[in-house]
Design a protein that fits this description.
By secondary structure, the chain is mainly α. The chain has one domain (63-268). It is built from six helices and no strands. α2 (109-146) crosses α4, α2 (109-146) runs parallel beside α6 and α5 packs antiparallel against α6.
Amino acid sequence: MSFSAPGSPPPPPLPAQPSAPSPPGPTPYLVPYPVAQQGHPYPGGPAHVAPSGPPSTLRSPKGLATALTWLLGACAAVRLFSAGVGTYEQSWLQGFPGDTHFDDLELGLAPGLTILAGLLQVLTVLPTIVVFIVWFHRVRSNGGIFRPDAFTLGRGWAIGAWFVPVANLFLPCRVALQTWRASTQRGPDGAERKASVMLLASWWVLWVLAASGDRVFGRLYEAAETVDELLTVGKLGIATDLVTAVAGVLALLFVRRLTAMQNTMATEGPYARS
């Protein structure tokens, strides 16, 4: 399937021809989309310079999205478990005088559960980060094939933006917004349509709050020395866990939504049917 320029009438149907047998096994998007063209596939875009090498081809993000569904769901569940452990720890700490030093606390179930919650977070977060960045780079690459003029940042920023201090609070969101726009079908007449970005914006705001809360909680928890200080820090930890769990669910929905948008673009073309 090839994409025609927006605003032009749909091409006449071609006569049916016998199709060759498909090769065995699953296949990705079979939509070769040459980036090198005369002119630009969308109005107002700059002319392309023909690159060397084979034309770009879409790659399906569906497998990565499925893995992320499970991983993000596991992360959210672990955070809810951690919030429950924090609540239990609050009740446990209230059994000691407020000025009791941390080193003088008796060992019990609460410290063990806290260690377990931390271990589960490490085991779920690390693979989630890796798979998410791979998925993010793939959908950004697909977006650059769908609509090159939608981007102001190269596709390498889909990876690099996450590792630049301070800039990682807004640059990945910018890449995501541009990818979202590039993955949105136009109207049947070629007119540009805007898909709501509320899901993306909600996820990003909560993710930034959760990430910031985690950093603050880690520093305060290390500095806490008495039961009163631990109780205060613990409330922040519970709130951060809950916000992170919600952010994880929104991230899951964002991944599934953007993947579905790109699947529609790849299988139906850049124009909506109705």
